[in-house]
Amino acid sequence: MRTFLQRFLEVTWRPDAFFERIREERSWKMPLVHLLVLAGWLSVGSVIAWGLGVAGDTPLNSALGAQMDVYPYWRDTLRPEYGLLSYPMAALLIIVEMLVITALYTPLIFLVFRYLGGAKESGGLLRAFQGFVYGLTPAVFGGFLPVLGLITGVYTTILQLQRGPSITLRNRTLAAYLPFIAVMAYAIARYWQGSLL
Fold first, then answer.
1. pLDDT tens track for 90-136
2. How far is the C-alpha of 161 from the C-alpha of 132, rounded, in Å?
3. pLDDT by residue (tens digit) across 38-49?
């Protein structure tokens, strides 16, 4: 447990040093366990916050797309139909969506960062996974609470889609900003259309 807390704090407060250090890790085990711990914490925290009246379908209150996707389904379908059982069901859905998003984004990040100027070295997919997963860490510090959800969500997006992969995949070129710019442009467009409110 102490190791996880140290990692949570280090990646949040000293991300560059953290991402440089984890490049030396050659195993998928630690980032996989880290992802599962994050997913569990964020899903349980989210459903507790929802039960206390925090609306989870807005970026002001939620750091992750998985939270914002599951909340309306929980509110409109699961809770009226299943009552208390809807809480663990919603938590499980958040975990599943986080795992699916990670599985989709990891190869995408690898391709963008590696083939648009990154270092050509072995273990690239693992390094993309490390950058994406560990970049998610700041969301544990209130990513399901009002205002903190927005702050941790923006910081998490920067770490996941730019800072982490640019260090783990050794790509500090202008192309390394493309995933972050694309996601932020999409979020701003949704905001202006009223979809993120």
1. 999 999 999 999 999 899 888 887 777 766 777 789 999 999 999 99
2. 7
3. 999 999 999 999
DSSP string, 77-89: IIHHHHGGGHHHH
SS3 of 118, please? coil
> Are the C-beta atoms of residues 147 and 161 closer than 8 Å to each other?
no
Number of compact structural domains in the chain: 1
The domain in which residue 22 lies consists of 2-192
Task: Report the distance separating Cα 24 and Cα 145, nearest Å.
Answer: 34
Return the H-helix or E-strand segment holding 67: helix 65-73
Q: Per the confidence metrics, is the pTM higher than 0.85?
A: yes
- Distances 151 to 3, 62, 137, 143, 197 between C-alpha atoms, Å: 25, 9, 13, 8, 16
Residue 154: inside a domain? yes
**Greatest alpha-carbon span in the chain:** 52
Contacts of 133 (CB under 8 A, 6+ apart): 31, 32, 34, 35, 38, 102
Is 197 within a domain? no
As a whole number of angstroms, the distance between CA 23 and CA 1 comes to 22
Rounded Cα distance, 1 and 104, in Å: 28
pLDDT of 151 over the 80 cut: yes
Q: How far apart are CA 46 and CA 74, in angstroms?
A: 11
Looking at every residue in the chain, the average pLDDT score rounds to 87
